[in-house]
Amino acid sequence: MPAAMNKNGMVTEIHTRIRKEPFTANYELVGRELGRGKFAVVKKCVEKATGKQFAAKFLRKRRKGADCRVDILNEIAVLESAKESPYVVGLHEVYETNSEIVLVLECAAGGEIFNQCVADNDEAFTEKDVVRLAKQILTGVAFLHQNNVVHLDLKPQNILLTSVRPLGDIRIVDFGLSRRMDSVTEVREILGTPEYVAPEILNYEPISTATDMWSIGVLIYVMLTGESPFLGDDKQETFLNISQVNVDYSQETFEEVSSLAVDFIKSLLVKNPRKRATAEECLNHPWLNSHPHSHPHLHTRAASSLDEPETSQSESEPESPASSPELGLIGSYLMCPGKGELKAGRDTFSFSEPPFPTRTEIQQELIC
Ligand SMILES: Nc1ncnc2c1ncn2[C@@H]1O[C@H](COP(=O)(O)OP(=O)(O)OP(=O)(O)O)[C@@H](O)[C@H]1O
């Protein structure tokens, strides 16, 4: 295990200088809030010295009564390790006050791809757009995986665009749940978005880079159809759909979408993580090297079944839920580098149990 990594797979050694002067000495906040998450507010700002625009992410250090500074250091360390990738949001500077850490990030002015996923007009993606953006997402994720980082929260709200018109390039954001996979480590708490989590998360089985690949399968499904493949009427139904890999591949849902695209998604929404395509394998899939027509705009039917996130403009309480309901699993996960041979001894989550299994200790055996 690298020296600066704790047993939860979090890296705490960073190279960026943490500035202690007030953030407002060097930046001016402009315009409206760009977004918010569970513990952060993101606002547009301008660097006084250069006039350049950035996105300032204000992260609270105390969350639910606990000091979470190490989690923020981990997020910074992951951003540092991915700075060579054009598809991972750039980190410019870091500021710290008694209560907050401010990450000054490259501003992705086009916002979340979520907006195009729910669009029902000419703002919606064409299949050609999705092919181009999928290549970028996979190139970014392949870079993370080559560097032994797993994102663990890939969803349309965390894939941003540099511009909307013309359609720009993607930037992957929100490394708050990311972990290093350099050695077998344990993760105790997984907070994610129910619709995007892989079956191994629900079953408390080991996490690997394949866990991200499941989420990419869901993401591409949503980008092409405007529908969320596993979303049920409640969390329990969503979990059941995920666990049973209950996916609708009907022609009606994939109207105007090529069969190569469906084949691509099928290579990712596979229950066994070892049988799921890797990012590298995906990049070689014929769909990504095909040339679908640029029209029509996809899912121009009635708006999709996706939950629209509430983007609150309020300044006050960053802990309020921002997007679709969160998943909160407290468990014990093993993280396995690569696709090692895994043997998990956990009995499967029963859906007669409450929707949030809270088992704290699971015996697992790992043969890598
Ligand atoms: N660099 C950026 N440029 C523009 N908008 C951004 C940027 N970073 C984040 N945002 C916006 O702010 C939102 C919240 O940011 P982020 O997901 O990083 O916060 P978080 O608190 O870690 O979220 P979560 O609760 O999902 O873990 C994003 O979904 C996006 O809409």
TrEMBL record:
The Swiss-Prot or TrEMBL record annotates one GO molecular function as: protein serine/threonine kinase activity
Spell out the subcellular localization from the entry.
Answer: Nucleus
Entry GO terms, CC: nucleus
Keyword Transferase carried by entry? yes
Per UniProt, the ranges with Low complexity bias are: 311-326
Alphabetically list the UniProt keywords: Apoptosis, ATP-binding, Kinase, Nucleotide-binding, Nucleus, Phosphoprotein, Serine/threonine-protein kinase, Transferase
Q: Does the keyword Nucleotide-binding apply?
A: yes
- Listed PROSITE patterns: PROTEIN_KINASE_ATP (PS00107), PROTEIN_KINASE_DOM (PS50011), PROTEIN_KINASE_ST (PS00108)
InterPro entries referenced in this protein's UniProt entry, alphabetically? Kinase-like_dom_sf (IPR011009), Prot_kinase_dom (IPR000719), Protein_kinase_ATP_BS (IPR017441), Ser/Thr_kinase_AS (IPR008271)
Residue ranges of every copy of the Protein kinase domain listed in the record:
28-288
Q: Main EC class of this protein?
A: transferase
Q: What is its EC number?
A: 2.7.11.1
One BP annotation, GO = intracellular signal transduction
Give the residues the record marks as binding ATP: 57
User: Which stretches does the entry tag as region Disordered?
Assistant: 288-328
Catalytic activity of the protein? L-seryl-[protein] + ATP = O-phospho-L-seryl-[protein] + ADP + H(+); L-threonyl-[protein] + ATP = O-phospho-L-threonyl-[protein] + ADP + H(+)
What the record says about family reads: Belongs to the protein kinase superfamily. CAMK Ser/Thr protein kinase family. DAP kinase subfamily.
Cited PANTHER family: SERINE/THREONINE-PROTEIN KINASE 17 (PTHR24342), SERINE_THREONINE KINASE 17A-LIKE (PTHR24342:SF16)
Name the UniProt record assigns to this protein: Serine/threonine-protein kinase 17A
- Organism (species): Nothobranchius furzeri (Turquoise killifish)
